[in-house]
């Protein structure tokens, strides 16, 4: 069968890498793809928001399954369009992808169906938002309501910072339409983990645990990014926490979405804050996390294609997932200046040397081909991902790969996986 993966980042390179290993698959396409996916699949120059172009291509090529990576085409209704035309697509339909596309919707859903989360308010005007800030106290979390590529969250440490963030979003258009409405939440203490599961709208099959590193600098300092690295398994997700997350977060959310007439099919990603035995939900994403996808897929022993097909067909009955006992760590290598304005077009050296390291894959995220070489073209450029018998071994192998790769101003965190070691 032929499979089309939609997207161009590290998550999509990891999906292509995993899908290409399936004996069921004869050819993989990636639209638009990147230089990494080009080594495993045929890249197709169609943008992720060109829904009709993607549909026409899938029909013409006889694609049996389309796997949608990023949130934008999901929120635009790509899966709905494919299904209306009798084609199988893996991902949330438009009316379910709103769980990520609107943070206000997501918070209201959690409140209604008793999914544990932080106290919050939703605002479109500066004055009532400032009153809520004064009432709740500092630190406080301010989120743009809409899609902001993982960057629409500000953790304000002072009142001035909080007021400036709200004013920037509501009056200053800092995140465009995504910030025309803001969600303001109490600040939760604890340790974050990513909890992902496949669901057909009723059955829920959890993936292995993972932990992302959002802040740009070591020690979780600096502004939030789309993710500077991830590892799996995450020791903070104990068996008791896992059971709690399944019962109180995933089960209630999947059932709640169904009750709202928004049956959720695809992969559901809950960002959790864990504090002792308490689990609270920070947010939901309607797709695989990036960079969590990279270590998770390296640890997945099962063929992913029958799982994706089962979800797209609407029934996960009888599906089980096997995992390698090994740990996996992904270190994101970013461009100078990210997550603010960053440089592009720097030539990347050392990719071949890193690629020769056993049990290590360099996933491309923000790269493009230039002549014989590869140059930087995004904020998060590469996700260097390694397996190891222990988390420590996986960390060492990943950083061994990182040290082989160079370009001017490259930035990466040096403490990815440290939390697992500390436990």
Automatic annotation (TrEMBL):
What PROSITE patterns does the record tag this protein with?
ATP_GRASP, GARS
Supply the Gene3D superfamilies for this chain: 3.40.50.20, ATP-grasp fold, A domain (3.30.1490.20), ATP-grasp fold, B domain (3.30.470.20), Phosphoribosylglycinamide synthetase, C-terminal domain (3.90.600.10)
Q: What cofactor does this chain's UniProt record say it requires?
A: Mn(2+); Mg(2+)
Citing just one GO molecular function, the answer is:
metal ion binding
Q: Which GO terms describe its biological process?
A: 'de novo' IMP biosynthetic process; purine nucleobase biosynthetic process
What's the catalysed reaction? 5-phospho-beta-D-ribosylamine + glycine + ATP = N(1)-(5-phospho-beta-D-ribosyl)glycinamide + ADP + phosphate + H(+)
Name one matching Pfam family: GARS_C
The record's listing under PANTHER family reads: PHOSPHORIBOSYLAMINE--GLYCINE LIGASE, PHOSPHORIBOSYLAMINE--GLYCINE LIGASE, CHLOROPLASTIC
NCBIfam families in the cross-refs: purD
Q: Which family does it belong to?
A: Belongs to the GARS family.
This protein's name:
Phosphoribosylamine--glycine ligase
